[in-house]
Amino acid sequence: MSGDVTLIEGGDGGVSRLVRTASALFGRPGFGPAALVGGLAVTVRLATVHRATNDVDAVCDGDAPLEYVGEGDVRGSQRVEIDGVKVDVMPTSPLPATAAGLPDGDLDRLFVLGHRWALESAESLVVRVVTANESGFGGAHTLVVAAAPALVACKFHAIADRRDARREKRESDALDLARLIGGLVRTPMIAQQFAAAPFDLAALVSSQTERWLIDDAARMARLMNMSTGAGDAKVNPADIATIGELFVEMLAA
Predict the structure, then answer these.
(1) Angle of helix 217-226 relative to helix 167-186, nearest 10 degrees?
(2) Domains of the chain: which residue ranges?
(3) Distance CA 6, CA 230 (A)
(4) Averaged over 190-199, what is the pLDDT?
(5) In whole angstroms, what is the distance from residue 196 CA to residue 192 CA?
């Protein structure tokens, strides 16, 4: 996806507030290079408000000067607050020249590669938020958003790394993953970006797809059905497994 994205506000102004906050973050002098990841980035890439989210997540090149962008509890903290919205910025570093410089563990490698690729694959999008009757709501804002394939990699790390106390986050991760991957299955040209993924990231994503969408499709469906953004229609595990199998085939092509 590139160019303009229009999001329909649910009525409480929440999406518009997040977009304004993200725009203010990227507009601060000295902030960046950086890119949106997390729930807002998924919403923009899907071009639909498919679930509620109340924070802004980003990755940046090196340590972000967060003391200049918001109020944090500790100077240099990765988490700040801007106009009542929680902002979490994760620093990334350039990748090593060889795989020997990467972490040995698959999950740690997925984190390092996925978040750096999210930064390097990002592009600027003009995001507009309107109400259901198509009246103007939040104006137009230019945001730097990670590409959908990189968001899949980041989300797979997130869902695998959640603790029991973050159950609701894992439910939203499952919903984001299924809808992102479903979109990639329907748009092979975008999925082909995995061919340019660094090191073994595509293989790591394939392995996580097999784990979550194929081998554990019943659990994935259950998490999606428990998500507040799932709606009334119940997700069938067989459908999740089919999407996973198609995606794995695409990654192997």
Answers:
(1) 110
(2) 3-252
(3) 21
(4) 97
(5) 8
